[in-house]
Design goal:
The complex is a heterodimer of chains A (about 180) and B (about 110).
Chain A: H1 2-26, H2 30-46, H3 57-71, H4 73-82, H5 90-93, H6 102-120, H7 123-134, H8 139-146, H9 150-170
Helix pairs in contact in A: 1-2, 1-3, 1-7, 2-3, 6-9, 7-9, 8-9
Chain B: H1 3-15, H2 23-35, H3 45-65, H4 70-102
Classes of the chains: A mainly alpha (about 180), B mainly alpha (about 110).
InterPro entries (chain A): RNA_pol_sigma-70-like (IPR039425), RNA_pol_sigma-70_dom (IPR014284), RNA_pol_sigma70_r2 (IPR007627), RNA_pol_sigma70_r4_t2 (IPR013249)
Protein name (chain A): RNA polymerase sigma factor
Keywords (chain A): DNA-binding, Sigma factor, Transcription, Transcription regulation
Chain lengths: ~180, ~110
Amino acid sequence: MATERQVVEQLVHDYGTRLYTFCRRLAFTPGDADDLYQQTYLRILDMKGTLDLSHNPAGFLMSVATRLWSDERRKFARRQRIAPLHYNHAQVNEVPDEKSTERMVEQQQTQIELREAVQQLSDVLRVPVLLYYMADMSVQDISSALRIPQGTVKSRLHQARQKLKLRLEESGYDG
Amino acid sequence: MTDDEKLDGLLRMSLTEEEIPPPAVQAVLLEQIRRQPAKREISWWLPTLIGGLQTITLVAGVNFIFPNSWLSLLSLPTGACFILCSVTLSAAAQVWTRKERNVYVVDKL
């Protein structure tokens, strides 16, 4: 039994930051992300003996997190209505105000806007985007994780990209 | 580089900007993992074996109470049939759930 715990602890050390980042993007508030992060590892612990970590462990962890989030989506959605997530725009101001850093500031601003835009996508579009870009999961893997056809995954990714592109263009991003 | 590729790169960069788990959250999690009570998992065939033994006992009981009757004659094939069914169903369930666990899926999306 100690061995499984050690495996999970190792997973916490190896993929904790990536999973936490994913949870922050998936859940709406830091509190929800913390809960989701912890629940994911505890669920993994319950799954001992059935773990398949040979192929993209980070993707596997994120799939479990997505499942948990999906199960408790109503709870999280309710909390989000009470305390909507706002990204901390102050971090842009932390960059030194020099001319050479202007481009960097602009890029950071774009990244923040993009993150917000992703956050505002509907769940059906947001989840495939997060799994595709954050977990490096293939369309096929996302398709089996979400139990939807590969064509649907492709279409949702395409729709999401179009919406994000439009949003960026509206805010003055020229590529 | 096309616009789509640029957007892909930007998306990847902005979404994967790392956020470190708060130390308190991490500490609580590790503590929970270490404290998680060890669960005893019984082998899948154990309930089947117990069920089979119960059936054999029942059949033996019927034969003891009503020897050489229709009931005792019927109880033998019926009991055998029950045991066979339970073994088959248990094995099938085991194979089925193993498949399900290996592919940890997200539904209802």
